[in-house]
Design brief:
seven-stranded mixed beta sheet, 213 residues, alpha/beta
């Protein structure tokens, strides 16, 4: 149902100036670090991947769904889209300047988030920037029907403080935790987190592992 989903979200960001401003800030942070390659993980039909590209980033998309990837390739043939799982990204260590997971960690069971965040940390270069978007809450749910068709989709809302704690445990430095109040068509508050993989410290040791002597 990639086509139906793409049509549903096609204009979703038009009325969300705060979200667009956060993408702009993310892009600037990535560019300032000198590495413009960014993975849009859980890219769907590529609606945010193209936005990141227009902000001057070398952006490419990754999605678990072959249908979404095929649609994104047709829609934006000049961009790169690949099939893949955020639990095991087919990317080299320290190869990215930025990683965006915009409402894609919401489909990862809570107990698998440490594995996901460790994987995000692995593929980001020192100084690389991570941005997460998610619905705020404690609920989990299951969707069995979409556009009149049978589906099986699990979703998990997130508490920003808990996500931030898990990111710190994975080795990230927190940069920003924000909560936006629900819009007209939204049921919950929306969360955004930006974090950074520490730059190299003394003798090449990551800064977060360097202690006072």
């Amino acid at each position: 149902m990639a086509d139906e989903y793409a049509e549903m979200v096609a204009s979703h960001l038009d009325g969300m100036p705060i979200d667009r401003a956060l993408f702009t800030a993310f892009a600037e942070l990535v560019r300032d670090n000198g590495n413009g390659q960014v993975a849009d993980v859980g890219c769907g039909p590529g609606r945010v991947t193209i936005l990141l590209s227009r902000l001057g980033l070398d952006a490419f998309g990754i999605d678990l769904s072959p249908g979404m990837v095929a649609l994104a390739r047709r829609t934006y043939p000049h961009l790169r889209f690949e099939e893949g799982s955020m639990l095991a990204l087919d990317l080299r260590d320290c190869s990215l300047g930025g990683l965006l997971a915009y409402y894609s960690i919401i489909h990862i069971p809570w107990d698998q988030r440490p594995q996901v965040f460790a994987e995000f940390h692995r593929v980001l270069a020192p100084g690389g920037v991570l941005m997460l978007g998610f619905q705020v809450g404690d609920e989990q749910g299951h969707t069995a029907e979409f556009f009149g068709k049978a589906v099986s989709v699990d979703w998990y809302r997130q508490q920003p403080g808990e996500v931030a704690s898990l990111l710190r445990e994975a080795g990230f430095e927190m940069m920003m935790t924000a909560v936006r109040e629900p819009g007209e068509t939204e049921k919950t508050a929306q969360g955004c987190i930006m974090a950074r993989k520490p730059s190299r410290g003394v003798d090449g040791i990551p800064r977060h592992l360097v202690t006072d002597r």
